[in-house]
Design goal:
Helix content is about 50%, strand content about 10%. It has 17 helices and nine strands. It has a four-stranded antiparallel beta sheet, covered by helices on one side. Strands 7-8-9 form a three-stranded antiparallel beta sheet, covered by helices on one side. It has a two-stranded antiparallel ribbon with strand order 5-6.
């Protein structure tokens, strides 16, 4: 067949074909940082939109971003790239590896081991359930058809990009990547891989948790008290009511109980009356919480005196329905499903935050039930309690106290009177020294006075005062 003649205009100029119009304009080509080296954005004659192109698995892949602005196009390109990687790894363009080397088989093996570790109380079942959810939701779709031995540093970086493009927080990215690393460690134990590739680094900043200052705390309690017994409607984006929930007196007591005991929200659903013990010291009654281990801590948690009173109020409330027996749960005992019980309390709390205008703190960070535990710890710091004592009583570490709670301490004066007492003690010792010297100088010559002051005074200001006159400093 002869060569097809090119179309020409009347003046002899060649007609630009559709294919040529789709080619990148050289001056517009821009690399996309963080993606495959071949990934570019470019403009072409055929469209006003930025175009995305990348070479993957032996194939040149193109997609219009449908965006005119470069910054928006770059964000869209990263999302498209993540979709391409997921599509490739899910088996559309690659043969399925042998089943013994798939990450899914490794995952099932690890979950089976974890079940045994849960029974031996080596792992928390909620943590394992969360890992399994993360695996099914994000990890499995990405690595579905990838041979374990083919998971290298580059693919892990691509997975990090995939997570980032789904607008997951840095903290979530780290935890999801950690699950993948645990799976790879399991694969190494099974001798399916020799080396574990380096874990991608994700920059994270410690998320300082919100708390309530005294004024905000009082406002929250006032709002809850005014709404007890009222039913509130939750509406979707379409304006339709999808849930109705009543504000209970139990919420009012719960808020104060958490602030007076340090208890974690997740512990609220498991703690029973048998876990609460009344202790009397120096004529004051406290309660100690002796529930099961949480976050690898099992020390007793001691309340304030007000904590005891709030517990007794709660116990009396549920006694009316005969639900305050030793094996009954402290909060929402009528709910057999404890996750539902906690969800009910959390939803009530969120509604009250909205009503009181306290849904977010001054920095725009959302508040949750956990903010009440944070409030308890910050209050203890401000009372001047030793960090070791606070950490032990709240079942956490001093490092966590400093990182997540100490940020609310603006100066040493926010840490009780320990600093002030130390300074006063040093001042008193200094004054005692000067006063003793002044008394001694009353019986010596002027020259001896001068030499003694200069030799013994630890401050030029003290020296100056004593040089001009002999006086006894006030205490």
């Amino acid at each position: 067949m002869g060569k097809r003649a090119e179309a020409v205009l009347a003046d002899g100029e060649r007609v630009i074909s559709d294919k040529s119009r789709a080619n990148p304009i050289p001056a517009s080509i821009k690399k996309i940082k963080g993606l495959h080296p071949s990934a570019i954005l470019y403009k072409c004659e055929a469209s006003s939109y930025w175009q995305f192109r990348v070479y993957l698995e032996g194939k040149l892949r193109k997609r219009s971003t449908q965006e005119i602005e470069f910054e928006k196009a770059q964000r869209k390109a990263k999302l498209v790239y993540a979709e391409m990687i997921t599509s490739i790894n899910s088996g559309e363009t690659k043969a399925e590896p042998s089943s013994k080397k798939s990450l899914d088989v490794i995952a099932k093996s690890l979950w089976a081991k974890n079940e045994t570790r849960i029974k031996n109380k080596e792992l928390n079942k909620d943590k394992v359930a969360k890992d399994q959810y993360v695996y099914e939701r994000h990890i499995k779709p990405f690595f579905a058809r990838v041979d374990v031995k083919d998971i290298d540093a580059d693919l892990l970086e691509q997975f990090k990009t995939y997570l980032a493009d789904k607008d997951l927080s840095a903290g979530s990215q780290v935890s999801y990547i950690q699950v993948v690393m645990a799976l790879l460690a399991e694969a190494q134990k099974k001798k399916l891989i020799v080396h574990i590739p380096p874990k991608p680094r994700v920059r994270t900043d410690d998320g300082v948790r919100g708390y309530f200052d005294d004024k905000e705390y009082d406002l929250l309690l006032k709002t809850v008290r005014a709404n007890i017994g009222k039913t509130h409607e939750l509406k979707g984006k379409d304006g339709k009511v999808y849930r109705r929930i009543a504000i209970t007196a139990e919420l009012f007591i719960l808020i104060q109980f958490m602030v007076e005991t340090y208890i974690r929200p997740t512990d609220l659903k498991v703690i029973r009356h048998r876990d609460v013990h009344v202790v009397t010291k120096a004529g004051i009654k406290f309660i100690t919480l002796r529930h099961g281990e949480t976050k690898k801590h099992k020390k007793q948690m001691t309340s304030t005196e007000q904590g005891y009173r709030r517990y007794m109020m709660l116990k009396e409330l549920h006694s009316l329905e005969e639900q305050a027996k030793p094996d009954d749960f402290i909060f929402m005992p009528r709910y057999a499903n404890r996750d539902t019980a906690l969800d009910n309390l959390a939803t009530q709390f969120t509604i009250m935050l909205e009503k009181s205008g306290l849904r977010t703190d001054a920095e725009g960070k959302p508040r949750t039930l956990y903010s009440l535990r944070h409030t308890a710890i910050v209050h203890s710091i401000r009372k001047g309690l030793d960090l070791e004592i606070i950490a032990s009583n709240s079942r956490t570490s001093t490092d966590m106290i400093r990182r997540f709670y100490g940020s609310h301490v603006d100066s040493v004066f926010d840490m009780g009177d320990a600093f002030l007492k130390a300074e006063k003690s040093k001042r008193d010792a200094r004054y005692d020294k000067v006063n003793a010297l002044a008394k001694e100088m009353l019986t010596t010559s002027r020259l001896t006075q001068f030499q003694a002051i200069y030799r013994l005074s630890d401050s030029r200001s003290i020296f100056s005062k004593c040089f001009f006159q002999i006086l006894v400093l006030p205490r």
